[in-house]
């Protein structure tokens, strides 16, 4: 059994902890959160120990950690855990700066612990099958790609300026584009719009749109936002489309197949990422957490490399530079 603790008992950490608690390969050995109330509540619910800080957790017999801290706090804690020889499943984005991502990668290569970045779309069958179709040559050579996701305004309001929409939301699609096309994004031209968030006193963009150039001459369009009203039927409007020389490929994650119309309106619940079925979490997140444990046990490499995660951060770094400069910017090749 792998003794695992979850760091961060917020939205994602709670889901991770529930996945870890039901995995037969692991023992949920603790919940770490500096907010004692939420940390203790989750620990009690899952019948495990509450630990106040990562330092406290390092004194326990814990082999691996799932880190689900706010984006800007990924570096310090992950580096500490990795340097102490603990394996880490770190929520995306790997870090919210390129220097931060590099520091985590360095700690992983020197510290003895193994590092997996939790890019959940890698475990979404629709995206994984799209990647295989492109690899097989089903649509010929990639000509252009359009990818993005628009979350609801409440996500941006909750973040309250603590992270950019391109890190909290957009990094999913940045990685998907580079992974599925097999081509790196080399140059970006990005513009941001800020109307909704400032009207609520939040210093943040609502959305960032980018025109991108990929290696080998393909072009692309990336869109990320937390601009949609919360009254819509689904929480994430995600789309991914490629036109190739011989065919096209589309992923549409707005419709998960179940539509419910009731007194509160029309709802399309999540049927893919972390659906609750018979009281247990299922779906992509369960698969992601399971893959982490399975690879730790078998010694096999994780399905996604650390380098790929650093490359996604490098694209976001260029996107934010372009928003700032108003000019196209070159992606640092890492
Ligand atoms: N994979 C996905 O689809 C997905 C979806 C949402 C969020 N995320 C990612 O998950 C991560 C967490 O996001 P969230 O929305 O769950 O955040 P959150 O704000 O809901 O939770 C963060 C938790 O960390 C705790 N915390 C803060 N500082 C701490 C510290 N130093 N030590 C221990 N605990 C501390 C907070 O008290 C809080 O409980 C982010 O990196 C985010 O980008 C991923």
UniProtKB/TrEMBL annotation:
Gene3D superfamilies (alphabetical): Dihydrodipicolinate Reductase, domain 2, NAD(P)-binding Rossmann-like Domain
Pfam families, per database record: GFO_IDH_MocA, GFO_IDH_MocA_C3
Gene Ontology terms for molecular function: nucleotide binding
Every Gfo/Idh/MocA-like oxidoreductase N-terminal domain range: 2-119
GFO/IDH/MocA-like oxidoreductase domain span: 128-250
Transmembrane segments: none
Full protein name: Unannotated protein
Organism name: freshwater metagenome
